Amino acid sequence: MALPADIPSSADVLRALERARMDVFQRAAPAVVILEVELLQEAIDGDSDGVDPGALQKRSARGDSRPPVRSEGSGFIVKPNGLIATNLHVVAQSRRITVRLRDGRRLEGRILGTDERTDVAIVKVEANELPFLEFSNSNAASVGQFVYAIGVPFGQEWSFTSGMLSGKGRSRLLGPTSALPLYEDYLQTDAVINPGHSGGPLLDGEGRVLGMNTLIARAERGLAFAVPSNLLQQTINQILEFGKVSRPWLGIRVETLGETPSLQEKLGAVQSGVVVLSIEADGPAFRTDLRPADVIQSLDGQTVGTALDLQRELFERKAGSFVRIGVWRQGANKSVSIQLAELPGAPQPVIETERGPRNPGAAQDRFGLSLHEIKARGVRVEAISEGSLASRSDLEVQDVITEVDNRSVRNVAECMQAIRASVTRGGSSGALLQVERQGRRTFVLLRNN
Question: Closest by alpha carbon to 127, among 81, 75, 76?
Fold first, then answer.
C-alpha cells in the first residue's frame, strides 16, 4: 500500500536527519580548536599544587632544560577577537599553549582567566574575525533532544559524535571527594565522549553551545557530563569583566532534604527543602538567626526544593546584597535576612579533633557521654564510651552541646535530662543536638538505636 504523497518516507526522514547532523558539523567545526599543551615539568613531578597557571607560564620563560610533556584537548571560540573557552584541567600547569584552528593556522595562546570550581578556563589568541559559536539556553533544554560533540579524542582531529541529552542538574559527581567546594550542575549525555573531548562544545540541533564537555564516567559506558551553557556564560562574563569569578556566599553547608533518611524521619512534618548542615564560623549566616537543622524553603520568595535550586538562585545575586531566606524550624515558618559575602578563594583549613578519648569501660548509661559544663555556653563532650549510643552518632569529643531539641542547656544535668526526655518522646528518631565545633555551628542526631 502506497503512502500518501504528503507523508515522507522513512528514507526521506533519515536523509533529513543526516543533513541536519551534517549542517551542525559544518556550522560549528570552524569554531572548534585543538589545544596543544606543553606541561611544565613540575606538573609531572607533582610539585605544582596551588601554583597559578599564569605564573607557571612566566616561570617557563626563564628556561627549563627538561623535555616537555605534551597533551591535547579541545576548546571553542566564543568571541571573534580570539577568546576561547576550554576546561581548566586541559591547560592548567602549562608552559606553552598552541591553538590549532580548523583552517590550519597555529597560534600561541595565553590563559586569560580561570575558575577552578567549574573547571573553566579562558584562553586568548591574537587574531580577529574568527568564526565563533553562539550559546543556547541550557535552562530551556529538554531531556531527549539531540546533542552533538566535537573534539580531538585520542588525537583524532575534529571528531564528531551525536547522542541525546540524558539528564540535567546532575551533581555530587566530584564534590564529595574534593577539598574545594565545587559547583556541580552538569548536563548528562550519551554522546560518545572520550579523553580529548574535554573543553569541546556540546551542541544543540542549531549548532549552538549547550554545554562544555567536562567529565567522563569511566566505570560506566554512555555516561558523560558537560558544564551547562548558562553557568558557562556567567563564568566567562565575570572573567572578562573582573579577571576572576566572584560568587556570593551564605557561609553554610547544606544538603537536599531526604538525602539522609534518619534526618527526614526526625524532621517529620516538612517534606521538601534544603537542610542547613552547618554554619561556618564568621560567615554571613553566623551573624544571623539561621540555625543548623533549619530547612530552607525559599530565597527572596522563590521556592527552593533542592541544594541545586539554592545554588542557582544565589548565582543570580551579587556579594553585598541582602537576601531573605524562608525557613522551617521545628514546625514554625521563619524569615531570616542575610547579607551575602564573597565566597573565599579557598576553604579555610580545619584541624580535625580527636574522636577520643574513648572510654573502653562500661558506660554510666546507654548514651555513654562524659560532659563538662562550660559557663554561659553549654556542656562540652569530654569522652564518649565505646559501644554507646553517642559512639554511633556524629558527636565528637570537644563538641559543645548548646541545645537539645530547641531547648537550651546550661549544665550537665539539664543536658542529660533533655536528651533522655527527647529520646523517650521521639522514639527511634532520637534527639537533635545543636553543637558548636571549632567555631562552626552544626547539629548531631543522637538516635535511640
Answer: 81
pTM over 0.90: no
Is domain 138-242 given the CATH code 2.40.10.10 in the classification? yes
**How far apart are the C-alpha atoms of 270 and 330, rounded to whole Å?**
9
Give CATH superfamily name and number for 28-61+68-125: Trypsin-like serine proteases (2.40.10.10)
Quote the radius of gyration of the chain (alpha carbons, Å): 27
Q: Residue 186: enclosing H or E segment and its boundaries?
A: strand 186-189
The whole-number pLDDT of residue 163 equals 93
Q: State which residues of the chain have pLDDT below 70.
A: 1-5, 41-68, 172-183, 217-222, 345-364, 426-428
Q: What residues act catalytically?
A: 89, 119, 198
Question: Which pLDDT score, from 0 to 100, does residue 349 have?
Answer: 46
The answer to whether residues 291 and 434 touch, using CB atoms and an 8 Å cutoff, is: yes
Give the Å distances, CA to CA, from 165 to 211, 226, 314.
11, 10, 26
Residue 135's CB is within 10 A of a number of other CB atoms, namely: 18
d(CA 77, CA 257): 40
Q: What is the pLDDT of residues 283-299, one digit of tens each?
A: 999 999 999 999 999 99
Beta bridge partners of 211: 202, 228
